[in-house]
Amino acid sequence: MDLSNLWIGDTVKIVSNGTTGKFEGAEKPNVAKVKVGTKYVMVEAKDLEVVEADMEDVFAQAQKLETLSPVEEEFDLIASVEFNRTLDLHLDKWNYQKAWQYQEANELEFQKNQCKKFLKEAIALKVERVVIIHGIGGGVLKSQIEWLLEKYEEVQRFASINGGGAMEVWLTYD
After folding, report:
1. Please, are residues 94 and 107 in contact by the beta-carbon 8 Å criterion?
2. In this prediction, what percent of the chain has a pLDDT beyond 70?
3. CA distances from 16 to 20, 49, 115 (A)
4. Which residues partner with 115 through β-bridges?
5. What pTM value is reported for the model?
6. By CB count within 10 A, which of 52, 72, 158, 164 is most buried?
7. Is 15 exposed, middle or buried (0-12, 13-18, 19+ CB in 10 A)?
8. How far apart are CA 130 and CA 157, in angstroms?
9. Buried b / exposed e along 28-66 (16+ C-beta atoms within 10 A)
10. Alpha-carbon distance 93 to 124, whole Å?
């Protein structure tokens, strides 16, 4: 499986043991971080399948979890405090031509990827509120960001600010 085709929050199946969980990102090339219940496991990409819906019995999932080894995560308070809680997606802020060497059609993809990286880092640092500046235009980027935000279970809510040119996002954690 190509991990770049997955979105954080996608439901995936670990083929070798039949367990399903949520894709949390790629930790190394061809190694995915998957949240199964309350545990995180590292899984090789070739051992994953995307599933449409997570309809398995919760009790059966809990039994399968016992065979997985959890990944311990440390919270970095200094990194959380120093984290810039505002992301500006205007291309001129990114030196776009050097950072992304593809056709103009990929500008939106570049911006979405920057947003995903930003959200992943904010979530890892347990940041509670961020601002994403998308600008005022035709609304395409804004709608893509809204769609992306809906995929994250940590996103409690979001709202347009600054005359519709930015989005304020509130995150919550268990």
Report:
1. no
2. 79
3. 11, 10, 32
4. none
5. 0.54
6. 158
7. middle
8. 11
9. eeeebbbbbbeebbebebebbeeeeeeeeeeeebeebbe
10. 24
- Amino acid, single-letter form, for residue 160: S
Q: Which residues contact 124 (CB under 8 A, 6 or more apart)?
A: none
Q: List the one residue out of 55, 58, 16 whose CA is nearest residue 34.
A: 16
Residue with tokens 């309809």: 55
> Rounded to whole angstroms, how far apart are CA atoms 149 and 154?
9
Token pair listed for 30: 């061809």
Which tens digit of pLDDT belongs to each residue from 116-130?
Answer: 999 999 998 899 999
- For the chain, domains (ranges, CATH) are 3-65 (2.30.30.70), 77-171 (3.30.1370.110)
Per-residue pLDDT, 99: 47
| CA distances (Å), origin 106, targets 36, 63, 148 | 33, 44, 17
